[in-house]
Amino acid sequence: MFDEIPTSRPRTPLLDAIDSPIDVRALAEKDLPRLAEELRAFMLYCVGQTGGHFGAGLGVVELTIALHYIYHTPDDRLVWDVGHQAYPHKILTGRRERMFTMRQQGGLSGFPKRDESDYDTFGVGHSSTSLSAALGMAIGSEMAGSKRKCAAIIGDGAMTAGMAYEALNHIAHTDTDMLVVLNDNNMSISPNVGGLATYLSKVWGSKFYNSLREGSKQVLTKIPTAWEFARRTEEHLKGFVSPGTLFEEMGFNYVGPIDGHDLGELTHYLRNLRAVKGPKLLHVITRKGKGFGPAEDDPVGYHALTKIEPRKAPAATTTKRPKYQQVFGQWLCDTAAQDPRLVGITPAMCEGSGMVDFARQYPERFYDVAIAEQHAVTLAAGMACENQKPVVAIYSTFLQRAYDQLIHDVALQNLDVTFAIDRAGMVGEDGATHSGAFDISYLRCVPHMVVATPSDENECRQLLTTAYQHAGPAAVRYPRGTGPGAEIDPALAPLPLGRGRQLRVGEQVAILNFGTSLPAALSAAEALNASVCDMRFVKPLDTALIDQMAESHALLVTVEENAIAGGAGSAVSEYLSTQGRNTPVLHLGFADTFVEHDTQRQQLADQGLDAEGLEQAVRTHLSGLPLSSALPSKG
Q1: 311 is annotated as an active-site residue
Q2: What's the predicted TM-score (pTM) here?
């Protein structure tokens, strides 16, 4: 028998016809679940090709569609918090084909970015900024006479930061017409979904209830005791079945929690709330990694993916080099075993900072304070007041958020707090929002601070011990990823405070290297026959070593993976100036610009911090001087 001839043609994917949210809004509401299915499948495919943030985006597919379906974007403003979850938003806003350039040079950013699309209303990367930004937009639009609507989408993790509550308080105080969507994907606020809670959410989100509520308010406010009784009755009823009491007390019209994967519910509530004036909060429950089993089971592990590539058989002699975060994690465990006063603190970066083993072995001495960098630093200061030994593990870009606490609460009081600063320097595909380009500059100007810049894995371990044993505030900065593969001494041996070392003796040019650019500096020095010093410390500087190099060389070259402005090189020049020395100094580091996403290797090359770039910079600097003729020829 012949196979039956199919009587229907395969359906054309809806997603192929979506070039903007206008196309989404042209769909029938019954077609939105099919669009969600296709959007989720496309995201799975493209992130597998490029790598990037993963689980959060899968969890907000339906919410993203519903928001663009109900809100008139881009005129209406949608502000995404952090941006990890914005990939579906990018796909629906005219960037579907460019998703395969995500986090690559010249390609799409991994975060919302204002100069990338009119639909990206606010550039993000750090958490808990959406509410303040959306409030500013709402107020600004009102001042301009615009009728546009503003909505902020914030996750329950980002709601752990104090900045979010500052904004919530101000939104309620101004009685601004805007919506806050609380995307609760960890059940951390309330598990009350279903039954009476679901029924009452439908009531609270209905047009009838909100019209009745506003009408009753106008009437009953003329009878204060009656209005107070009605308000309290509603408040206690909501508080019985939902976490809304907090938000209601602040002045929000709270609705939820609702199922964030039910497009019918989402569009229903969003449509109704868009028409309601004043501050509103819609609480939606989503599942991080929705639609991909492994990501649903392990939302932390699948927060982001690396690019999926064909598996290669490892060479027989290959040994896997540890990442710097693993070097720190092992040092933390080893030091804790010797010192019961050690306490580990991190602002929601346990896995990223290499603290998983420490948290497992010493749970009573581990504090993950959530996304609260300011609190993390002052918490450490308080512990130091009681003669404990806090170690704050924090990314360079996130320590910026706690700068006042570092100065006022730690350094001003000269408290014994150790800062393990991860992701110093270029971070690769995460781009400018996460770049650790400024910590040397903002740390070295603070009195009492020690700032150390290890050049390899073993030196990182040694300088962590040095910082920990120093009786005062001290920071050790190290980059993302692996080092050169130095053998690690298991001993917890400190290095002399403020002392560097000369590694190569050359002529005329001396390279003063700060940090993990040392291999590139040594390679360039071979071509230039230059001296090389591993300076180890930005503060205190090894001034004796600088004097020695200045006396015996015609040019000093400082190299650092930090902004040149105010960095380690500036410290060297400042010292030479105080000594009345006029030795020329060439500063090499990051230019006065924000460096966009690319691979770490390419970012460093573009900044002239690979071996070839360092060599060329020195030759160019000396090309007009008699000295240049004495340098070895290139090649």
Answers
A1: no
A2: 0.75
